[in-house]
Amino acid sequence: MKLGLCVLFALLGVAASADMYYEFVVKWQMGYPNGIWRNIITINDQFPGPPIIVNVGDTVTVNVTNRLFSEVMTIHWHGILNTYAAWADGSQGVTQSPILPGGTWIYHWKAEEAGTYWYHSHIAAQYTDGLYGAIVINDPNDRYKGRYDEDRIIMIADWSLYDTTIGVTWRQYSFTDGAANVPIAGTLINGKGKQWDCTTACRKCNQTSMTYIPVTAGKTYRLRVLNVAGETGWFSFSIPSHQMTLINSGGVDVAETTVGTIDVGLGVRVDLLLTANQPPDNYWIQARVGGETLLPIPPFFNIQPLLGQDGLAVLYYDTVTPAPPVAAPAAVLPDPFINNQMVNDLIPLNPPTVADPTVTFWYNITLPPPSWIRGPFLVNGVVFEHFHVPLIWQILAGVRGSLQSLVYDVNLNDDVRFIIQDQGPFNMSHPMHLHGYKYMVLGSGRGRYDPNVPLKTVPWLTDSLTMYAGGWAVIQIHASNPGPWLFHCHNDYHFLWGLGMVLSVEPDGVKNWFPPTSDFPLYDDYPAMLPRPCPSATTILASPAPVNAPVWAVLCTVLMLCVLLL
Questions:
Q1: CA 84 – CA 93 distance, rounded (Å)
Q2: Pairwise CA distance, residues 17 & 303, whole Å
Q3: Which of 13, 311, 376, 540 is the S-S candidate for 498 at Cβ 3.0 to 4.6 Å?
Q4: Terminal Cα distance for the chain, rounded
């Protein structure tokens, strides 16, 4: 009987869902991803962490043990919807309390939609030290399944010579003091990077190989490319001499586009088909650093030279000896599919319906001088701070509206539109990530938002969008997933500097689905780390339309730039 059912499921193309169980042990270790020894965070002694590979419909359980000595942690499942399960989102201070050193936390979530996703810490800058990994959700009925032979996961991350967590963890509780960036020194691909010249190193150095990815001539591969950087706006990804076909972005199948190079924004994932149809050899995999900023003077410049070395790995045909290619990396990348061109060109194969918005919020981003050196950012004139008492518990206790005016309540099934404006006067590209949803990108551009500009009727769907520096974007969701959801810049330092807010969907209904199980850790189960008074309930008002930066701010910035340039 059981055999007959299995055969029937196979014939129908239906896969029975499974319970997938993982154990993660997180700790500090010493490593040398780009040759220089330093502290790194490992999961199960792996750097980056092990991939989670499941099928649509599976229930995933991850038992996390924190062995980071003196640091708290959480894990966020980036791109996983957690429908009616916000408690599994992993947002410290919003949906859970942190995992204490020596403590454990059990996450349960459902693999709802096929695609490429990732997980990472959501405290301080821990994921930039290695607390991240890939998630692949396969669909037995994947429309592309017959067109490729194997998967290849390619995770691209920026990297520093010093661990970034020490010195900034405490700032998670004090954003108004800002946070000093740790300079980027290179780019890693699958945990390895272009090697440091040990003859010039002033610290312990050990030459190791870069990442080598094998292919077999004639086979086609689904490259799952993830930008898991901490602050690099985008990476221009290419494999010279090879063309690729873009088929999916962030778990959304899109109209196929042939590319030689594609810019992958921070937090974004793209799936590309590559056929190994070139003469067997070693070929560079290139991840060119990208980003931009906009200043009062000069009007525009590319900050790529300030962000660190480009990433290099090697794609090698398995009939040759793997080695760095003889030819130098390509100086000019072919056929660019540049950042934000996606907004205009990507068309979902199953486009969503755009309804008239029920409620519209402005999301005004300001970094006035002299705070652009260390922060903080202002969102609608306010700095976002994490909540000492997890917000989800405050909602259960009857708190409504806003803390620091940055919790926006909406009703279930509202159509919520955000108009995001980078107001400056010091502008940078911001990768905006919304938890719990894929949002529709109705438009994006440089400069000030013009309400007369027509918006898209067939929008791109994503959970992460890298905006133009000094630009705008209009996004929209249908608020069908209740709970408090972070909406923040995924540049880790920008978020540390206060660039975030919370969209709270149907707060009155939280009590109907939370807590999920009797063994879910409660706020009272851990001691208060930094005692603070519990804020009182307030009422949120729609945020104001953007205003021009004050003249004094612009003049101050110009003066500081003149001093720096002189």
A1: 18
A2: 47
A3: 376
A4: 82
Cα(282)–Cα(316) distance, rounded to whole angstroms?
A: 4
What does the pLDDT profile of the chain (566 residues) look like in tens digits?
444 444 443 444 445 789 999 999 999 999 988 888 889 999 999 999 999 999 999 999 999 999 998 889 999 999 999 999 999 999 999 999 899 999 999 999 999 999 999 999 999 889 999 999 999 999 999 999 899 999 999 999 998 877 776 545 444 444 344 444 566 678 999 999 876 667 766 677 777 678 999 999 999 999 999 999 998 888 899 999 999 999 999 999 999 999 999 999 999 999 999 999 999 999 999 998 876 655 443 434 444 444 457 899 999 999 999 999 998 888 766 666 666 666 667 889 999 999 999 999 999 998 877 655 556 888 998 888 878 888 888 888 888 866 566 999 999 999 999 999 998 767 778 999 999 999 999 999 888 999 999 999 999 999 999 888 889 999 999 999 999 999 999 988 888 888 999 999 999 988 888 766 655 665 444 333 323 333 333 333 333 444 444 444 444 444 444 444 45
Q: Which two tokens stand for residue 18?
A: 């499974």
Q: Is the peptide bond before 98 cis (omega within 30 degrees of 0)?
A: no
CA distance 266 to 251: 15
Q: How many domains does the chain have?
A: 1
Instruction: Find tokens 């996606």 and name the residue.
Output: 342
Judge whether 549 lies within some domain: yes
DSSP 332: S
Cα 266 from Cα 98, distance rounded (Å):
24
SS3 414: coil
- Phi, psi (deg, nearest 5) at residue 476: -155, 145
Q: Specify the residue for token string 């045909």.
A: 317
CATH number, domain of 380, equals 2.60.40.420
Evaluate whether residue 111 is within a structural domain.
Answer: no
Distance CA 508, CA 512 (A): 9
DSSP state string for 465-484: EEPPTTEEEEEEEE--S-EE
- As a whole number of angstroms, the longest Cα–Cα distance in the chain is 82
Name all contacts of 160-165 with Cβ < 8 Å and 24+ positions apart: 160/128, 160/184, 160/185, 161/36, 161/38, 161/185, 161/203, 162/38, 163/38, 163/39, 163/40, 163/129, 164/124, 164/125, 164/128, 164/129, 164/230, 164/492, 165/41, 165/71, 165/124, 165/125, 165/126, 165/129
Estimate to the nearest angstrom the gap between the alpha carbon of 558 and the chain centroid: 32
DSSP H helices, 242-384, are 341-345
Whether residue 299 is contained in a domain is answered as no
Structural domain of 445: 359-560
Q: Which helix (H) or strand (E) holds 243?
A: none
- Nearest-angstrom CA–CA distance, 563 and 327: 42
- Total length of the chain: 566
- What single DSSP character describes residue 175? G
